[in-house]
Amino acid sequence: MAAALRTSQPVEMNIQVIDAEKSRLEVVKEEEFDYSQRAQWLRAAVLGANDGLVSVASLMMGVGAVKQDVKAMLLAGFAGLVAGACSMAIGEFVSVYTQRDIETAQMEREKRMPGSGEEKEKERLPNPVQAAAASALAFAIGAVVPLLAAAFIRDYKVRLAVIVTVASLTLVVFGGVGAVLGKTPLVRSSVRVVIGGWLAMAITYGLTKLIGRSGI
C-alpha cells in the first residue's frame, strides 16, 4: 500500500508539472502574438464595412430628404454600393501594391548590404489582391444593410427611422468586432464609429434638404 502511494505521488507531480508548463506556453504564445499582423486585413475589412454602411445609409438619407419614393432611395443606394465597392477595391489595390513595391525594394537593398544577415520573407509582404477583395467585399456587406432595411418599408418617415436605427446598431457591432480583434477598448471604439455615422447621415440629410428647398 505504501509503495503504491509513493508511486502515485510522482505521477501526480509530473502531471501537474506538465499542466503548468502547458499553461505557461499558452501565456507566452498569447503575449508573443503580434496583433499588428492582423492590421492589413483588419483595416481593409473593418474600414470597408464601416464605409459601406455609412456611405450608403447617408446617400439614402440624402435622397430621402428630397424624395419620398422608396424606389429612388433603393436605386441610389445600389448605385452607391457598386461604385463604392469598386472605388474601395481599386484604392486598396493601388495603396497596398505601392507599399509592397517599397518593401520589396528595401529587401533588395538589404540583400546587397555587406554583413546583413536578416532578410524579410516574401510571404510576409502585403497582398494587394487580397486586400482589394477584402475591402470590396466588406464595403458591399456594410452597404447592403441599409438597403435591406429600407426595401420593404413603404411609409416614408418609418423608412428613414429604420435606416438610422439599423445603421446605428450595425455600427456598434462593427466597432465591437474591430475592437475585439484588434485588442482595443470596446466601448470607445463602438462609440466613435456610431457618432461618426450619425454625423455623416445628419450632414448629408441636412445639406440635401437645404439644397432641395432652395430650388437648385
TrEMBL record:
<keyword id="KW-0408">Iron</keyword>
<dbReference type="Pfam" id="PF01988">
    <property type="entry name" value="VIT1"/>
</dbReference>
<keyword id="KW-0410">Iron transport</keyword>
<dbReference type="GO" id="GO:0005774">
    <property type="term" value="C:vacuolar membrane"/>
</dbReference>
<feature type="transmembrane region" description="Helical">
    <location>
        <begin position="72"/>
        <end position="90"/>
    </location>
</feature>
<dbReference type="GO" id="GO:0005384">
    <property type="term" value="F:manganese ion transmembrane transporter activity"/>
</dbReference>
<feature type="transmembrane region" description="Helical">
    <location>
        <begin position="131"/>
        <end position="153"/>
    </location>
</feature>
<keyword id="KW-0926">Vacuole</keyword>
<dbReference type="InterPro" id="IPR008217">
    <property type="entry name" value="Ccc1_fam"/>
</dbReference>
<feature type="transmembrane region" description="Helical">
    <location>
        <begin position="193"/>
        <end position="212"/>
    </location>
</feature>
<keyword id="KW-0406">Ion transport</keyword>
<comment type="function">
    <text>Vacuolar Fe(2+) uptake transporter.</text>
</comment>
<feature type="transmembrane region" description="Helical">
    <location>
        <begin position="160"/>
        <end position="181"/>
    </location>
</feature>
<comment type="similarity">
    <text>Belongs to the CCC1 family.</text>
</comment>
<protein>
    <recommendedName>
        <fullName>Vacuolar iron transporter</fullName>
    </recommendedName>
</protein>
<keyword id="KW-0813">Transport</keyword>
<keyword id="KW-1133">Transmembrane helix</keyword>
<dbReference type="GO" id="GO:0140315">
    <property type="term" value="F:iron ion sequestering activity"/>
</dbReference>
<dbReference type="GO" id="GO:0005381">
    <property type="term" value="F:iron ion transmembrane transporter activity"/>
</dbReference>
<keyword id="KW-0472">Membrane</keyword>
<dbReference type="GO" id="GO:0030026">
    <property type="term" value="P:intracellular manganese ion homeostasis"/>
</dbReference>
<keyword id="KW-0812">Transmembrane</keyword>
